[in-house]
Amino acid sequence: MDTDTTSTHPLGAVVDGVRDSLDEAASCPIWSLPDAQLGGVLAQLVRERARLDALIFDLVRQADVNAVHTGTGAASTAVWVRQQTRMSRAEAGGAVKLAKALDATLHSTKKALSQGRVSLRHAQEIHLAMGKLPADIDPDVKAQGEAALVEQAQTFDPQELRALGDRLYQVVAPNDADRRIGEQLAREERKAAASRTVYFGTAGPGIGTVTMRFERAYMAQLHGMLDALAKPRPGPHGRDTRPYDRRLADAAIEWIGLAQAAGNAPTRGGTRPRITATVPFKFLRGLHGHGVIHTTLQATATLNPDGGCEACVTGRGDAENGGADGSGPKVGAFGKVPDGIPVSARWLRMLTCDAEILPAVLGSDGAILDLGTGTRLFTSNQRHALGERDGHHCNFPDCQAHEKWCHAHHLIHWADGGPTDIGNGVLLCPTHHDMIHHELAGADG
């Protein structure tokens, strides 16, 4: 936009002179400027540009004071600035705000900008940093903070100055800053605690999701615990190729097992969390088919020696899969997690290596006639003996996972008649226990 600056006012004549000088400079053969002078001329132009910016803000501020926009139909000074300069909405609004601040409070910044000692971007960062200071602090403290930033702007670029500005109050008033930061953190922590949530969902066949939201401090604790369990572990084919997020997920599964195995694990109705699994006994022996996990709140399962394995909560079975009279809903060679998702018999075999089983005898109508007592397949004394024998760590080659992380694994699975004694047991970390049951064909578990 061409604007007539012809005026009897001295400033108009000066601006005309600046325009003429720039025209002359543009016609100069820059290619002939000696290399030794390029840096000096460049730095001088940047300084003069900053001085021009200071003059522009003076004009914007005066236009705002005079409410020039009211005589032009513009809704505000910012709109008027856009009309005159083709600035963007955000740029024009920021120019008006900075012009007001330079005139009202940022006196050191205004002086430095008009002298070319700081750039427009530096001035904007100083304005931003000063706006973050508490409104009720001593004006002298504010002035000290501004002066400190102006001084730092002689050394640091605008992005670096922003980082310094974020810590400005801690520098100029450290004691009060600590108090205010503590109060702010306390408010944020109370708000975060009130918004804690855990959601369990599904993400497709066989996979579930957990969404958690809680305070960052606890999130850091959780991350630290999982990270300690997520170290790479070599497998039968060499180095651990799992990506970090997968190792974290596997570590979470391992962590769940550690929590369940803890002596002070939480209970519900006096019973520690367990899993109810439904799977035909013949499929559990044969490593094929699949089973059902019914609940993690009670670990009651009924084993039918005729071939069926039915959870007490399931009801009656059928003749093919272990029911006595062929009536009632079929159990089949499948299983479900609490929401009904099937799991493989191989996975159930791994689970039952170190599980609690409540044997039950079913009558012809499927009713429970006798319910046995819970039996931990490997007792704590047996697990300790396995640790003493195997060096207190996972027995997989080159794995040093501590015994407290390990599962007690049956070399000959209990479903195949394997005894629960030290000679038939070995400690395996969750990663290698899973590998034995899911990846090594022909392995017993």
TrEMBL record:
GO molecular function, one term: nucleic acid binding
UniProt domain HNH nuclease: residue ranges: 381-434
Annotated SMART domains: HNHc
Biological classification of the source: Bacteria, Bacillati, Actinomycetota, Actinomycetes, Propionibacteriales
Protein name: HNH nuclease domain-containing protein
Similarity comment text for this entry: Belongs to the Rv1128c/1148c/1588c/1702c/1945/3466 family.
Chain segments annotated as transmembrane: none
InterPro entries, A to Z: DUF222, HNH, HNH_nuc
CDD domains referenced in this protein's UniProt entry, alphabetically: HNHc
Pfam families: DUF222, HNH
